Amino acid sequence: MPVPGRACPPGVLPVVASLVRLLAVALGLLAMLGSARAAPEKCPRMVAGAKPLRLAALDPPRGIGLLRFAEATGEVRLTFLGHASFLIESPAGVTIVTDYSDYIGTPVLPRVVTMNHAHDTHYTDHPDPRIAYVLRGWNPGGGPAHHELTLDDVWIRNVPTNIRNGAGTEYDGNSMFVFEVAGVCIAHLGHLHHLLTPEHLEVLGRIDVVLAPVDGSYTLDLDGMVETLKAINAPVVIPMHYFSRWGLDRFLARLGKERQVEEAASPTVTFSRQTLPKVPTLLVLPGR
Predict the structure, then answer these.
(1) What is the DSSP string of 207-257?
(2) Which of left, alpha, beta for 216 (phi over 0: left; psi -120 to 50: alpha)?
(3) Which residues contact 7 (CB under 8 A, 6 or more apart)?
(4) Residues 6 or more apart from 163 whose CB is under 8 A from it?
(5) What is the three-state SS of 190-209?
(6) In the prediction, which pLDDT does 141 show?
(7) Is the pLDDT of residue 146 over 90?
């Protein structure tokens, strides 16, 4: 310890300064890691201890090593059931139906269903009691719904949005649901009524396939939906929630100026990280 009235020995001050800098860096890293834990995860999810993908550009800095990318295998199978309902099947056999209701039948008993309540064609008050997980996009008790669920090779979460309610707004009344399966991030926009904020887009993360309502009246207007899909910038857009071929063609004429339009013969399509299209694609699936 320095004695009052005497100078510090040569070399002590630089050492002390270096220690102070190292302490500041350590505290900063701890603060960053704390913020990362507090923030909601987004696609593609990062998982502690999972086997990493062989992508050098995505490797975390040496010396941290706490978060690694989960390895993606297999293909996700997607079937358009009609209206706003899709059957999602994972390589491990997890089955999910979106906007599950009494209006659209399902070919299998799903393990998970998601629902929104803008209209009764998007939810039911009496889901099959054999369904293991019923995820409502609204909170019956008020406030935003919060879902985050991992089942085998599937990760599911919701992003709350607002809906029109008569002449007013029901805040957090519905949700967009995000599914990560086989390394593919799928976003179902639900009954979206408004443009997405930068915060919405940040929480969504990287989206590979977006399921978009394109009626242009009951949900977001056509200009707003086109703007939203440009902001999400997913490689694949699949339209849903349209009521006539005229309505679908009106949407295709707008977004099709910037995307390759493909019309599938089957309502079922499969995706993997390796088979996602290199050219932005607008994929039309026939409803069942």
Answers:
(1) -SEEEEE--BSSSSBHHHHHHHHHHH--SEEEEE---SHHHHHHHHHHHTT
(2) left
(3) none
(4) 118, 169, 170, 173, 174, 191, 193
(5) CCCCCCCCHHHHHHHECCCE
(6) 87
(7) yes
DSSP state of 286: -
Number of domains in the chain: 1
Q: Give the integer Cα–Cα distance in Å for 88 and 80.
A: 9
Q: Within a 13 Å sphere around the CA of 202, how many CA atoms are in the beta-carbon half? A: 5
Cβ atoms < 10 Å from Cβ of 131: 16
Please say whether the beta carbons of 185 and 216 come within 8 A. Answer: no
Alpha-carbon gap, residue 66 to 94, rounded angstroms:
28
Listed in order, strand segments (DSSP E) in the chain are 46-47, 68-69, 76-82, 85-89, 95-97, 112-115, 133-136, 148-151, 154-165, 168-181, 184-188, 209-213, 236-240, 260-263, 268-271, 281-284
Q: What average pLDDT score do residues 238-257 get?
A: 92
Residue 209 domain-assigned?
Answer: yes
CATH number at residue 234: 3.60.15.10
Q: Quick check: helix, strand or coil at residue 124?
A: coil
Query: Distance from CA of residue 205 to its chain's centroid?
Result: 6
State the chain's mean pLDDT as an integer: 81
125 in a structural domain? yes
Q: What range defines the domain where residue 150 resides?
A: 76-284
DSSP state of 50: P
Question: Does 227 fall in a domain?
Answer: yes
Q: Which two tokens stand for residue 158?
A: 């919701």
Is 31 inside a domain boundary? no
User: Max Cα separation, the chain?
Assistant: 90
User: Are β-strands 236-240 and 209-213 bridged in parallel, bridged antiparallel, or unpaired?
Assistant: parallel
pLDDT given at position 121 = 87
> What's the mean pLDDT in 205-229?
92
Instruction: Give the containing element (helix H, strand E) for 36.
Output: helix 12-38
Contacts 24+ apart (CB under 8 A), 14-19: none
